[in-house]
Task: structure prediction
Amino acid sequence: MAYATVHRGYGTDVGAARFYVVSDATRWNRLRLLALATQVLWILVRERPDVVVTTGAAPGYFAVRLARLFGARTAWIDSFANIDQVSLAGRRAGPRSDLWLTQWAHLAKAAGPHFEGGVV
Amino acid sequence: MIFLTVGGQLPFDRLVHAVDEWATLHPDVECSAQVGVTSRPPSTIPFSAFLEPAELRRRIFEADLVVTHAGMGTILTALELGTPLVVMPRHGARRETRNDHQLATARVFADHPSVSVAWDESELPRLLATRPGPVERPIPSHASLPLLTALRGFITGEDVGDRTPASDPAVAEETPVPRLRSAA
Result:
């Protein structure tokens, strides 16, 4: 089990598990996006995961897209904070994931995302 | 003790200033704050720009009341640690965040007995005086059982089973946004 997030301070949440920090890039900053994609690729090369689980945004988008190259299965769980609509990253990466979930029943669709409950 | 926290992505001076003004009028109430990026730092309340996640959790746990933006992470953390909240959503139109997703978050918690929503800063003094009720049943620190079960099934490769009726778009159309009144 390994974790990746954008803030070093969350390392204390994962105990002794391997922990990676990646750039906090958004779609408005192309240079940082490129750095982020490289970081995610490097993590995938090192970890060779069987399964990738993400709640999204830019790091999750790259993780889902790149994990395919390594034969990993992918799960995109759209953030509980996305209440009015599924995230833009989710709409792009979700259909390419093996499991695509929203945490709000009213956002579920037959073609995905599906609803299997939320964090609360 | 009141702890004000507004996250870090963009300034939220409207809330910071309103709470600081209130604190000036109530010197008997101890306050502290995490204000992020701001061009108008508080004059009365001792503050930090940013706090490490562990320190943020400690402050939320120790506070009697958390005053915050409608950030899902902060709200769930406070309800997990048993601290009631006064929440004021950031507005996309005021460039306090990129869109109006915080309004949706505030609506979801508007009926929660331990969450008071200030739709704008004029409502803050009243809500700080009346205060939301104590957190009777803190939410668990882990995700709900249905979500965990679905994920476990996926990871171990077992069939997740039938999708919920809400997967039917006709049903989804009619499903209103639920409101979280208390932990399930």
User: Anything to note?
Assistant: The beta strands of chain A are 2-5, 18-21, 51-54, 73-77, 99-102, 114-115.
